[in-house]
Amino acid sequence: MRILVVEDDIRLATALAETLRQAGYAVDHAGDGDAASAIGETEPYDAAVLDLGLPKRDGIAVLTDWRRAGRTMPVLILTARDAWADKVEGFRAGADDYLTKPFRLEEVVLRLRALIRRANGHADTVVRCGALALDTLLGVFTLDGAALSLTAFEWRILAYLIHRKEQTVSRSELSEHVYEDHVERDYNSLEVMIGRLRRKVGRDRIATVRGLGYRLTPEGEGTGAGSGIA
After folding, report:
1. CA 90 – CA 41 distance, rounded (Å)
2. Both ends of the chain: CA-CA distance in Å?
3. What pTM, to 2 d.p., does this model score?
4. Tens place of pLDDT for every residue, the chain, 230 residues?
5. DSSP state of 43
6. Judging by beta carbons within 10 Å of its beta carbon (0-12, 13-18, 19+), is residue 74 exposed, middle or buried?
7. Nearest Cα residue to 212 out of 158, 172, 159, 162
8. Could you tell me how many helices (H) and strands (E) the chain has, helices first?
9. What DSSP letter does each residue of 135-203 carry, written as one string?
10. Which of 4, 110, 164, 218 meets the CB 3.0–4.6 Å disulfide criterion with 48?
11. What structural domains and CATH numbers belong to the chain?
């Protein structure tokens, strides 16, 4: 799962990015409105955190650009502007949530988890695929009720797959949502991570759809690594 943080205050942006990475997310940063408009229109994000008071181009203009370009990722506005008219303007431009400064970094994580869950069509706070479950409030995966120990990168992959459970996800799509912008995308490394996840969640839960990608299925319905689905 990949998030764009648009914030010109470097200390706040760094704190946000660190907190979100600790929560398992891949994080990219844009420090001004022009950069935010460009990267948000060209890169696929699962959510964006957007400040309004940006240099070069304000946040409302950035958000308007994104929505006109057809970008549908949920957007959480973070701003010092707490007037009702500012909130209305933000929602009219296409914001999904609004949080005024000062705020707790943990609240940003909770709100983003909820936005991502709802954007993927999941009403319950726990997303399930058979015996595998993701508690989106805590950010914890369980298998048959027991918590799984995952690295941040493993969590990211599994979170993306469970939000799209029983859908085929191509390798290119998956790589776009689990690697940060400055990191080289490596399909071989991705395949290694899939192998590690299979050992933790069960070989048959992550099916390889030959020539297409991967699909997370309830136990007993997958085909395992290296096999194909007609």
Report:
1. 18
2. 29
3. 0.87
4. 999 999 999 999 999 999 999 999 999 999 999 999 999 999 999 999 999 989 999 999 999 999 999 999 999 999 887 788 888 998 999 999 999 888 899 999 999 999 999 999 998 999 999 999 999 999 999 999 999 999 999 999 999 999 999 999 999 999 999 999 887 777 788 889 999 999 999 988 999 888 889 999 997 554 433 322 22
5. S
6. buried
7. 172
8. 8, 12
9. ETTTTEEEETTEEP---HHHHHHHHHHHHTTTS-EEHHHHHHHHS-TTSPP-HHHHHHHHHHHHHHH-G
10. 4
11. 2-119 (3.40.50.2300), 126-216 (1.10.10.10)
The amino acid present at 40, given as its one-letter code, is G
How far apart (Å, rounded) are the C-alpha atoms in residues 221 and 230?
Answer: 14
Distances (CA, A) of 214 to 36, 160, 174, 190, 228: 31, 11, 9, 11, 10
The answer to whether 218 and 127 have CB atoms below 8 angstroms apart is no
Strand order in the sheet with 206-209: 169-170, 213-216, 206-209
CA atoms within 13 A on the CB side of 177: 22
Q: Which residue reads 């943080």 in tokens?
A: 5
